[in-house]
Amino acid sequence: ESYYCDEVGMRDRRAHGYDAVGPERLIRARYLNHAWPYAAGSLCSTVGDLVKWNRALHGGRILSEASYREMTTARPLEDGSMIGYAMGITDGMRGETPVNAHGGGINGFVSQLAWYPEEELSIVVLQNSTAPPGASALAATLADLVLGPEPEPEGQRYTGSLADLEGTYRGIARGQVMEVQVRENGGRLEFSEEGDDTPVVPTHIGDDTWAAGGVRYMFRRVGDRIGELRFTAGSAHYVLERISS
Predict the structure, then answer these.
(1) What residues does 238 pair with on adjacent strands?
(2) What is the mean pLDDT of residues 234-242?
(3) Is 176 exposed, middle or buried (0-12, 13-18, 19+ CB in 10 A)?
(4) CB-side exposure of 143: number of CA atoms within 13 Å?
(5) Strand partners, 219
(6) Residue 194, pLDDT above cutoff 90
(7) 62-79 exposure pattern, b = at least 16 Cβ within 10 A, e = fewer
(8) How confident is the model at residue 201 (pLDDT cuts 50, 70, 90)?
(9) Does residue 199 have a cis peptide bond before it, meaning omega lies within 30 degrees of 0?
(10) Which residue in 97, 92, 111 sits closest to 150, CA to CA?
(11) 18 in Cβ contact with 24 (< 8 Å)
């Protein structure tokens, strides 16, 4: 029951999608011409089919060993920066546990598909609305139920000056402007995106890198001062320029 879906074809048992409008209201998904996302967002499937796909893909039935290793191994960027993204799939860790995963989103729908090779575990979330908490958060909760709570990264003492990192950082993230405020508060850094009521307080894990869940905040020096903030989470890698201190 996996197929290319469009706006005009009739299918039995196909779920309707809903968009979130405010914190407590849903509307039918807005119209989308599927010629635009094409295969990146126009595939319909089921949880059962995606479990079968994961077993086949990661069980050696689709790719050669060399191709599979190439697909699931992250490579550094040209400037040497490491990211957690390989070829169409993340190459990440959940604590000490490897995980390959990818999420998706389109009008009215969000999804997450994860594979934990050491446990041969698939976690699939298909959500027919764009309301929170979302597929990624639900998949993380399911992983906690099966594997136990995700361990927090081990914190390290930061020997530099937190005041040198404070400021506003801005850049492009998935075609939109992303702006992050970084402030020192009580000996810890706080990260706030525009519109957030509660700042993120990550843990320093080494050098100029902080972590909160699966997100990494990496400060980069330009000359003798901090000039960039690299925001990395799964397939995302955003470069934010420091515009004020």
Answers:
(1) 231
(2) 88
(3) exposed
(4) 29
(5) 229
(6) no
(7) eeeeeeeeebbeeeeeee
(8) very high
(9) no
(10) 97
(11) no
Q: Is 138 helix (H, G, I), strand (E, B) or coil?
A: helix
Structure token pair of residue 77: 């960027």
What is the rounded CA–CA span in Å between residue 174 and residue 81?
19
Q: What is the DSSP letter of 150?
A: P
- Backbone φ and ψ for 218, nearest 5 degrees, come out as -120, 115
Distances (CA, A) of 183 to 142, 229, 232: 33, 13, 19
DSSP conformation class of 146: H
3-class DSSP assignment, residue 85: strand
With H, G, I as helix, E, B as strand and everything else as coil, classify residue 244. strand
CB 42 within 8 A of CB 35: no
pLDDT at 7: 66
CB 191 within 8 A of CB 129: no
Would the pTM count as exceeding 0.85?
A: no
Query: How confident is the model at residue 125, as a pLDDT?
Result: 98
Which spans in the chain are helix H? 47-58, 65-72, 135-147
| Residue written as token pair 């594997």 | 147
Widest distance between CA atoms in the chain: 62
For residues 109 and 138, give the distance between their C-alpha atoms in angstroms, rounded to a whole number. Answer: 14
Tokens of 168: 């506003």
- Pull the structure tokens for residue 148: 């136990």
